[in-house]
Specification:
This protein is mainly beta and 124 residues long. 0% of the residues lie in helices and 50% in strands. The protein has no helices and eleven strands. The radius of gyration is 13 Å and the shape is globular.
Length: 124
Amino acid sequence: QLQLVESGGGLVQPGGSLRLSCAASGFALDYYAIGWFRQAPGKEREGVSCISSSDGSTYYLDTVKGRFTISRDNAKNMVYLQMNSLKPEDTAVYYCARGYLGGRTCPKYAMDYWGKGTLVTVTS
């Protein structure tokens, strides 16, 4: 069974940091584009970051550029999202998802497997 499991969410004050982890099983994560998405209450799910399978290129939502960093550890079959300088508007459930084999980007329509999400709450 193909599975993605997120972890690392929690409660943090503005300006703080968290590192989210996405553990994959049932497939080799390094062959696919992998994306991080988030959904706040009452809001649409939006793409936060993506890492390409082909050349390792990374992409970020404009509002998180310079604060978030996506990375991959092929040996552990995991993808991470380091989140620094967190803001209250970053509060959401964060999901990782698998895109196309050999994919470069992470449009929502391409994501076929999703984790259950991990909650990030930024408040003072």
